Backbone:
């Protein structure tokens, strides 16, 4: 069997491999989707995370047949065409050197796969409002009301209450080596705890005071680099209450490894209670903080707020001290 | 056009010596400068370092000190720069340019002594430079590997620490930088320099002095990068992101200057390879008859020459920021930290393919030899390598998907990144097509090539996950990425390098590598490479960021598994070194002239290869790799009756 060298034998080789390949791929994909897919990170705590998980699973179910295809081919080839079993194989010159049909099919299949993946990724990115990734100061894939909430936050006019459909802006300030969270909707108080309301679209505004950090809210499916002098916006929509981890995922110096804390998604009323209580408790401190702004420049006098006059991250940041722009 | 004249006379005219015949001069006849060697390089390097340090302090004393270090960054920079110049002067790299500058003619810088000392000198013989590179990259790799062992040791336990966080991050940074810079040269340097001229039927490289210079710059760059450790290291990882870069101490100077120095060597090596391949091919070697390894080196050379200058510029900007207080990367002063990220990755992504393409080349070169059949779809394989090289310039922002710039460009960079898998897929088509109905010989080099196809597949497929922006949110900056690029670079390039070494060392040294020890090495390396890095995909998905000294306690099991596998992986390299010592010195076994029955031109030369390579320049008669083809013409005509028979070997 292994020494078949006529043309019918050639067909059989591929047919055998294809049979094993189809069977294993189907089994593999089914097993994956039943046993692994529901547990794939980042979980389903938010809409974003759920969609990221689905994307990962679709990619994996496409990747598995590719892996199996090559592995089965390699295993089959090495087993059947080792020189000891296959002493008498002869090659008919030109035919062994190339095969136009194979080449064309290979290119067509890989191109279609790749174009499908790129199209699918783009679709997922757009419908998922940037998929939880940092989009810079001028987000291209903002959800409805997202940009409005951003402007309102800067002007001190952002509002949110249980049951409202408003987007909740939350500022994330990275510094060596901790994250601080600021809530412009509630008087701009600062907290080292990240508490979020359930069933709400959140606009994270990520910035840094010193070097580049990356705000990685693992279970939320959010990751945005914290650049000094830059406002990096990422959107996500929370679902049910639950806890999540926050880590720094961009090397930021010696204690990068221990720059993490945990956060909580709570029910809307619980969140409002916490936020209003904390706002009141911190009123004295908040009065000393610089006004809410997209970026902060630490200097000898504390921290000045900064913003981009034209929303262009490459433009010069303007600082406005304690006075907010109108 | 002197090149073509020379070549045609070499083919048709009588043989009368060759351009580089060594002159027998006695010690006293030699001009003093000609006895330069490694020792003089070290001495002048140290003197240069001291002068530079003094000069820097003289220039800027009391003016610019790195905060909290008591060190003057200008003095540090000039010390290292002058040290590099001293090193190059000491080895003799500057003799010829200076001789020309001052109108002195006829100065030969090549050592006339043809003994072992030539390996410690500035040699114009591409085979000597090739062997120097072998030792150089192995040393480089060994250093980086030791640091990797230290990293895995620290990650054995999330709470008990073997190093301080400070030391740990410096080890990580040094490991990454050393390995990346080593990997740019690991195949182009040793095997490219040694075998490209042989494979294209040339007597030399186009620019032998530049070739030697690129090696000695490479070694200087290694020492400059390594000098970061005695300077206190740098905490930025190999990516060196500003403003952390601007913030960090004197070790950063070594990193930035080291990139500039090694970058210079890479640009020179790239130019030299490209010019050699384009202009020095033997008559009859049309583009469709060039061995695929040479194609891969040509594609790599294009990347080396076009991408590396960007790194060079980026490094110099960083140096200026650190020394004379410019603000290229300082947002607060009108600069932009994104500039570094863009410059770095505009180099950094082609760099990834600088490290992948030569591996593909070796795979394509070795497969036909061990499959005893022609390479399947030869043109597709070279098209694939050129396609990868071209596309690699258009993907760099996928490293910045979460950085906050250009959100509207993400679909484009996702598309270009995924498009790269089409030409990469060509390499798999070629590989799998060549295996089809072959007569596979499971020799050591073949095992490593097969392992490359296995590993690189995992590396490539996970690359598609990373290129998908929604999935990238979870996997960016974590152990998933780390595992992905170790699968492509270590699993691809390093396995290819090992395949190349086992394949070509018999030609380079005249000794066969021991097959039994080699098999132990292969299986240990292959199995424990996968056991080390595969768990890291899971570790990354479970939320462990890169470059951390501590992690969630529930990940300790996986991390320990990975660490212990890494130790055995490290041990497999000791087996390799033992094999080198065993096969070359302890129990040397003389290699047959053509142990693998290859049709390649490099195997048709005499062993040891004469310094002029070919008695007569061969004329290439047909396509390469026509194994087992009935009635195939011989690959090359050497024009001599007693030339080694390069016709199709009889059936194995």
Residues:
């Amino acid at each position: 069997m292994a020494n078949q060298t006529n043309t019918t034998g050639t067909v059989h080789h591929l047919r055998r491999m294809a049979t094993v390949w189809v069977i294993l791929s189907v089994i593999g994909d089914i097993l994956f989707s039943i046993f692994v897919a529901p547990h794939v990170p980042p979980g389903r705590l938010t809409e974003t995370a759920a969609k990221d998980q689905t994307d990962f699973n679709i990619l994996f179910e496409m990747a598995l047949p590719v892996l199996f295809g090559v592995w089965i081919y390699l295993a089959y080839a090495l087993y059947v065409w080792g020189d000891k079993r296959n002493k008498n194989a002869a090659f008919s010159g030109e035919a062994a050197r190339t095969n136009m049909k194979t080449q064309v099919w290979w290119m067509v299949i890989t191109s279609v796969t790749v174009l499908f993946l790129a199209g699918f990724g783009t679709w997922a990115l757009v419908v998922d409002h940037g998929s939880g990734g940092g989009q810079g100061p001028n987000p291209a894939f903002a959800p409805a009301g997202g940009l409005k909430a951003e402007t309102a936050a800067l002007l001190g006019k952002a509002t949110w209450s249980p049951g409202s459909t408003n987007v909740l802006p939350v500022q994330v300030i990275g510094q060596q080596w901790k994250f601080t969270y600021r809530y412009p909707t509630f008087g701009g108080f600062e907290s080292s705890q990240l508490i979020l309301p359930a069933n709400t679209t959140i606009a994270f505004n990520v910035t840094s005071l010193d070097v580049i950090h990356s705000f990685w809210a693992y279970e939320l499916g959010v990751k945005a680099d914290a650049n000094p002098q830059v406002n990096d916006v990422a959107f996500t929509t929370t679902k049910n209450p639950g806890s999540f981890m926050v880590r720094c995922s961009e090397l930021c110096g010696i204690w990068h490894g221990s720059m993490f804390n945990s956060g909580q998604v709570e029910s809307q009323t619980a969140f409002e209670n916490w936020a209003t209580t904390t706002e009141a408790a911190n009123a004295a401190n908040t009065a000393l903080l610089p006004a809410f702004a997209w970026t902060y420049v630490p200097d000898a006098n504390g921290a000045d707020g900064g913003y981009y006059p034209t929303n262009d991250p490459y433009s010069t940041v303007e600082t406005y001290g304690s006075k907010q722009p109108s | 056009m002197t090149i073509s004249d020379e070549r045609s006379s070499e083919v048709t005219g009588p043989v009368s010596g060759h351009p580089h015949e060594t002159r027998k001069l006695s010690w006293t006849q030699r001009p003093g400068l000609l006895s330069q060697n490694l020792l003089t390089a070290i001495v002048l390097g140290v003197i240069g370092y001291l002068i530079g340090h003094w000069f820097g302090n003289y220039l800027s004393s009391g003016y610019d000190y790195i905060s909290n270090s008591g060190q003057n960054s200008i003095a540090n920079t000039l010390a290292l720069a002058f040290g590099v110049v001293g090193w190059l002067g000491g080895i003799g790299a500057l003799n010829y340019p200076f001789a020309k500058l001052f109108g002195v003619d006829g100065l030969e810088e090549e050592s006339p002594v043809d003994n072992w000392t030539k390996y410690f000198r500035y040699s114009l013989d591409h085979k000597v430079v090739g062997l120097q590179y072998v030792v150089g990259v192995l040393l480089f790799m060994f250093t980086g590997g030791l640091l990797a062992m230290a990293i895995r040791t620290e990650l054995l336990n999330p709470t008990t620490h073997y190093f301080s966080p400070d030391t740990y991050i410096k080890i990580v940074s040094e490991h990454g930088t050393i390995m990346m810079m080593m990997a740019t040269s690991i195949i182009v340097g040793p095997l490219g320099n040694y075998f490209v001229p042989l494979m294209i039927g040339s007597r030399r490289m186009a620019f032998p002095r530049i070739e030697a210079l690129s090696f000695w710059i490479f070694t200087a760059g290694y020492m400059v990068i390594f000098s970061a450790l005695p300077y206190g290291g740098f905490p930025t990882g190999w990516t060196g992101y500003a403003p952390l870069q601007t913030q960090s101490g004197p070790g950063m100077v070594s990193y930035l200057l080291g990139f500039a120095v090694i970058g210079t060597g890479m640009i020179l090596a790239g130019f030299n390879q490209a010019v050699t391949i384009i202009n020095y091919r033997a008559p009859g070697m049309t583009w469709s008859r060039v061995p695929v390894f040479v194609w891969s080196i040509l594609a790599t050379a294009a990347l080396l020459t076009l991408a590396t200058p960007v790194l060079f510029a980026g490094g110099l900007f960083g140096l200026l920021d650190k020394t004379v207080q410019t603000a290229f990367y300082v947002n607060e002063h009108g600069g932009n930290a994104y500039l570094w990220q863009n410059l770095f990755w505009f180099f950094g992504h082609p760099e990834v393919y600088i490290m992948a393409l030569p591996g593909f080349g070796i795979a394509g070169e070795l497969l036909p030899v061990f499959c005893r059949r022609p390479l399947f779809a030869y043109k597709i394989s070279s098209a694939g390598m050129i396609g990868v090289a071209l596309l690699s310039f258009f993907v760099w922002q996928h490293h910045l998907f979460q950085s906050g710039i250009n959100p509207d460009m993400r679909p484009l960079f996702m598309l270009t990144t995924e498009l790269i898998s089409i030409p990469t897929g060509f390499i798999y088509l070629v590989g799998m097509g060549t295996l089809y109905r072959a007569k596979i010989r499971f020799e050591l080099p073949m095992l490593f090539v097969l392992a490359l196809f296995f590993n690189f597949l995992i590396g490539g497929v996970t690359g598609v996950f990373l290129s998908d922006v929604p999935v990238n949110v979870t996997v960016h900056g974590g152990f998933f990425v780390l595992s992905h690029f170790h699968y492509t670079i270590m699993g691809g390039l390093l396995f290819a390098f090992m395949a190349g070494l086992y394949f070509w060392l018999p030609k380079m040294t005249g000794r066969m590598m021991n097959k039994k020890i080699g098999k132990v090495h292969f299986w240990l390396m292959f199995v424990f490479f996968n056991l080390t890095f595969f768990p890291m995909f899971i570790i990354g998905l479970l939320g462990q960021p890169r470059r951390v000294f501590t992690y969630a306690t529930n990940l300790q099991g996986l991390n320990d598994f990975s660490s212990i596998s890494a130790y055995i992986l490290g041990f497999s390299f000791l087996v390799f070194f033992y094999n080198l010592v065993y096969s070359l010195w302890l129990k040397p076994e003389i290699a047959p002239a053509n142990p693998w029955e290859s049709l390649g031109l490099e195997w048709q030369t005499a062993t040891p290869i004469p310094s002029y390579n070919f008695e007569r320049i061969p004329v290439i008669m047909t396509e390469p790799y026509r194994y087992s083809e009935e009635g195939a013409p011989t690959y090359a005509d050497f024009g001599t009756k007693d030339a080694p028979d390069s016709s199709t070997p009889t059936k194995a």
User: Anything to note?
Assistant: Chain B touches chain A through 98 residues (CB under 8 Å). Residues 33-107 of chain B form one domain. The two ends of chain B are 45 Å apart (CA to CA). Residues 1-21, 25-29, 646-652 of chain B have pLDDT under 50 and may be disordered.
